[in-house]
Amino acid sequence: MMSWVRPWCLAAVSAIATEPLCGFAASPDQVPDLTGRVQAIVTLKGRDNFTSEYRYDVSVRNLSPDAIIGDSLIIVLDKITNLAGEDREGLTGESFLKRFDVLDQDGQTDDGKPYFRIPAGTSPDLVPQTDSLPAVVRIRNRDYVAVFTPSFKVLGQKRPPPEAKRVESPLS
Per-residue pLDDT tens for 2-42? Predict the structure, then answer.
């Protein structure tokens, strides 16, 4: 019935949002947080002083011993901090993230944080100690504040271990 679906896709039934992953769709809020086992690598690639727009390449490095399903990787712009490391306005308590325009995002989590899909590489998995292709993140600073730091969470699915093959004993 579902012969067109790769077997590893069946493990990703609850994988990610709006666009189907292996023929399935789910909310990014249902994808496991891998932030402790992977690292988001954020590289500033460009800046437009006139529009106060910053362009970042964000890739994911797999620090875990497990393979991660490559097309399940999502980065979530979790917060933006100022030089003092604060992520909220002192007087109002408003998140700095609300004061920025995040361009070309793939969607938003249930709590309104922008997310981006990591592009699939040549391999179906992000194996241990390797980096993904980068996602392009563009942030426009409406307040023209000179220095800020974006922080990302990484969501994704670990590749399930292969099933052990059963060895049938010959009948005597």
Answer: 333 333 333 333 333 333 344 334 567 788 999 889 999 99
pTM of the complete model: 0.75
Pairing of strands 125-126, 53-62: unpaired
Residue 37 CA to residue 17 CA, distance in Å, equals 21
What's phi and psi for 96, nearest 5 deg?
A: -60, -30
CA 94/CA 109 separation, integer angstroms? 18
Contact call for residues 18 and 107 (beta carbons, < 8 A): yes
Residues 130-166: b if buried by 16+ CB within 10 A, e if exposed: bebebbebbbebeeeeeebebebbbbbbbbeeeeeee
The answer to whether 131 and 41 are in contact (CB under 8 A) is yes
